[in-house]
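Let us work through a complete example step by step.
Step 1: write down the sequence.
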Amino acid sequence: MLNSNEFFWFSVAALLHTFTPGPNMACCLSRSSCQGRMAGLFCLAGVLAAYGVHVLTISTSLSILVQVSPMAYELLKMAGSVYLLWLAWLVWRAGSAKAQMVCELVPVRAWALFYVGFFINLFNIKAMLFYLVQLPQFLKIDHGGLLAQSIHLGTVQMAIGGVVIGMLVCGLARLEPLLASQGSIWRGASRYAMSSVLVVLAARLLMLRIGL
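Step 2: predict the structure and record it as C-alpha cells.
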C-alpha cells in the first residue's frame, strides 16, 4: 500500500482532477441549479456508479497489461505527466463555469437523473484517462496484488470526487454569485493557481520516472 507521502500526492491528483473542467461537474451543478439539490445528488449517484465501472474495468486491464507487456505499462506511466499537462491546459483556458450549467430539459424523476449522470460519466474521456494513466503512477508492481491496489486507489478517488461534488451541489445557492462573476480576480487567480499546481505535479511525476 501507499505510504503517507504517496497517498498525499495521489489525493492531490484526484482532487485536482475533480476540479478541472468536465462534464461530471457541469452535469451535477446544472441539475442542482435547475431542478434542486436532490436532482443534483441523484445525478451525482449516477456519476459515482459509472466511476465504479471504470475502476473495475481499467484495474483489470492494468493487471493484465503488466503481465503481457511491462514496457507498454512503463510507457503508460510516462503518459501520466502528459495527461496532467493536458488538464493544466484545460484549466488555463476554462471559461465561465456558469456558461456550462445549461438547463437542459431532463425528466425530474430520480431514475432518469441517475441515468443521465451514469451515461455522461461512462463515456467521459477525462475520467477514463485518469484511471488509465494516473493509477499506474502509484501502483507498486513488486508488492503484487495490482488489481487490489488499483481498486483501492480508485475507491479513494471516487470518495474524493463524491465528497467534493456533493458539497458543491449542496452549497450551490451560495456559490452562484461567485460563479456569475466570470471576470473576477478570484476566478482568474484560482484558475491560474490550479493550472500551475498541475504543471508542478506533472514535472514531479516525470522526474520520478527518469530517476531525478
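Step 3: interpret the result. DSSP finds ten helices and no strands in the chain.
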